């Protein structure tokens, strides 16, 4: 690595050297950006990361006996059964919380939720990964596609469009230090996709060993935002393990990336074009900001796929493009440009923190007195050298082996906008590229109304979702559930049946 640094162009040295002058108040400082992201959501975690020196306060359930994974059935104490199903029926749903003692770690435990399908136990197993990097998947569980919706009084009600309507659903707190996942050793904090994907693969092995009845079900990887990095790496790791006949065969059928960051070189170039198209900036702004692109592009190319020193230079250089657009746009919500942020507050997800800080809830989940870290600035900073890496490079191999990819994006998201996502998907070189590019956009209809536009060729699909921002399942829950059902069952072009009600699916 040191030899590589010596051949970096001088302007990259200047960018890297400038980090020495950064302060916590500097808008280019990763710690500042991490804190801003967290406050956008009105989240104020008590800890910056779950690295625990005194573990006497933690229920170390994952160390019971020789088992790597220990879980328990649970029921949220503040659940309100508006459907009147009765306690016995709710208990039969099969809601689990657990810890996995990460095999290749010093002392790390990965927390997860597992919700059995409200439909059929033969439904696919779907894992959801929230991005950040460093944000807990409970954000999606309670505000997007989990079985519950959270009310202002911290009570929970059924989510009519939860993805457990059509799948056996996993939410995982990762990387280590996020959510309820923890370690006593800072060496367990991950810095790249190899560490992230290896941990997730090992977790799956333990999960299917504990639940062999689900091992033959179709398996799909899903998530959003920075999970545009996690998901391709994780899918490649699963596929690699299957081909090498490592452990339990995982029946990987596909992976879906929602408003993700996957190929920064293409996606950062799309920022100004998207902002101009949507009226956020003017033509003069477009030309001015684009003068910064050459430095950004060069640094990203040097960063490549390996995470070299140029990746920090790329992070700093390229973020000036986004921050310049933001400074012109003012208080616009960069997750949904139809909305304004009130000060730093773009969303209010504080009810989730309040809920998961309650002793009754933590007792039900079996996590002891551990603090819930909604989003970790420490994990965010640890992944900085990973940020500008291109994760598209491993995808063509998966497509050639018939593993499906769905890239979807809400049309009003700026930060991981649909235009940048569409461009990298179209630019990706694989055997079906020409046919995919030539295929027509087709309306994605839900209940007879156009909910988006999509195109498909072979295993690859791209869907632009109407009337949605960064978090598609939150903004368009019915369309998102329809998307999941149709994609996992065969094709987005199939007409979608209405989601079964909770009562009818028992």
Relevant terms:
506 residues, alpha/beta, Rossmann fold, 11-stranded mixed β-sheet, 13 strands, globular, disordered C terminus, Ser_caboxypep_ser_AS, Peptidase_S10, carboxypeptidase
Description:
The protein is an alpha/beta fold. It has a domain at 55-261 and 388-489: Alpha/Beta hydrolase fold, catalytic domain (Rossmann fold). It is built from 20 helices and 13 strands. Strands 1-2-3-7-4-8-9-10-13-12-11 form an eleven-stranded mixed sheet. It has a two-stranded antiparallel ribbon with strand order 5-6. The longest helix has 20 residues, at 310-329. It is globular, with a radius of gyration of 22 Å. The N and C termini lie far apart (57 Å). The model is unreliable at 1-8, 16-26, 56-65 and 496-506 (pLDDT under 50). Keywords: Carboxypeptidase, Disulfide bond, Glycoprotein, Hydrolase, Protease, Secreted, Signal.
Strand and helix map with partners:
Layout: H1 2-6, H2 10-17, H3 30-40, E1 69-73, H4 87-91, E2 95-101, E3 109-115, E4 125-129, H5 138-143, E5 148-150, E6 156-158, E7 168-172, H6 193-210, E8 219-225, H7 227-243, E9 252-260, H8 264-277, H9 283-290, H10 293-303, H11 310-329, H12 350-356, H13 359-365, H14 377-382, H15 384-387, H16 395-400, E10 404-410, H17 418-427, H18 433-438, E11 442-446, E12 449-457, E13 460-465, H19 472-475, H20 477-489
Parallel strand pairs: 4-7, 4-8, 8-9, 9-10, 10-13
Antiparallel strand pairs: 1-2, 2-3, 3-7, 5-6, 11-12, 12-13
Helix pairs in contact: 2-11, 6-7, 8-9, 8-10, 8-11, 8-17, 10-11
């Amino acid at each position: 690595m040191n030899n590589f640094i010596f051949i970096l162009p001088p302007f990259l040295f200047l960018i890297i050297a400038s980090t020495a002058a950064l302060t916590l108040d500097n808008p280019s400082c990763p710690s500042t950006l991490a804190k801003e992201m967290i406050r956008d959501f009105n989240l104020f975690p008590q800890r910056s990361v779950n690295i625990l020196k005194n573990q006497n306060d933690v229920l170390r359930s994952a160390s019971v006996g020789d088992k790597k994974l220990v879980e328990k059935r649970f029921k949220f104490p503040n659940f309100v059964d508006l459907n009147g199903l009765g306690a016995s029926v709710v208990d039969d749903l099969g809601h689990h919380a657990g810890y996995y003692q990460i095999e290749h770690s010093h002392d790390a435990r990965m927390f997860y939720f597992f919700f059995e399908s409200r439909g059929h136990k033969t439904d696919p197993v779907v894992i959801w990964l929230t991005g950040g990097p460093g944000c807990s998947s409970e954000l999606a569980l309670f505000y997007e596609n989990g079985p519950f919706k959270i009310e202002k009084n911290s009570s929970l009600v059924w989510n009519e469009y939860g993805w457990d309507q059509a799948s056996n659903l996993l939410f995982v707190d990762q990387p280590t230090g996020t959510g309820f996942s923890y370690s006593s050793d800072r060496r367990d904090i991950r810095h790249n996709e190899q560490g992230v994907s290896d941990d997730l693969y090992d977790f799956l092995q333990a999960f299917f060993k504990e639940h062999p009845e689900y091992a033959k079900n179709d398996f799909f990887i899903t998530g959003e935002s920075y999970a545009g990095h996690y998901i391709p790496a994780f899918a490649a790791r699963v596929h690699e393990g299957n081909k090498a006949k490592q452990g339990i065969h995982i029946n990987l059928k596909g992976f879906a990336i929602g408003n993700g960051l996957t190929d920064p070189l293409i996606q950062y170039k799309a920022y100004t074009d998207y902002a101009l198209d949507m009226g956020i900036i003017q033509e003069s702004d477009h030309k001015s900001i684009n003068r910064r692109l050459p430095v950004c592009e060069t640094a990203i190319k040097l960063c490549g796929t390996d995470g070299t020193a140029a990746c920090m230079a790329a992070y700093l250089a390229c973020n000036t493009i986004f921050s310049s657009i933001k400074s012109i746009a003012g208080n616009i919500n960069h997750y949904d440009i139809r909305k304004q942020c009130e000060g730093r507050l773009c969303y209010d997800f504080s009810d989730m923190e309040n809920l998961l800080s309650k002793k009754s809830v933590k007792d039900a989940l079996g996590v002891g007195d551990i603090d819930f870290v909604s989003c970790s600035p420490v994990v965010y900073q640890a992944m900085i050298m990973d940020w500008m890496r291109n994760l598209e490079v491993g995808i063509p191999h998966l497509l050639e082996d018939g593993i499906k990819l769905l890239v979807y994006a809400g049309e009003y998201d700026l930060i991981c906008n649909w235009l940048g996502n569409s461009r990298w998907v179209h630019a990706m070189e694989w055997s079906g590229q020409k046919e995919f590019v030539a295929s027509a956009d087709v309306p994605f209809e839900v209940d007879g109304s156009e909910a988006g536009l999509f195109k498909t060729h072979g295993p690859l699909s791209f869907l632009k979702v109407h009337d949605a921002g960064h978090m598609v399942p939150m903004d368009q829950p019915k369309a998102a559930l329809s998307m999941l059902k149709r994609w996992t069952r065969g094709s987005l072009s199939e007409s979608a049946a209405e989601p079964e009600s909770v009562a009818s699916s028992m």
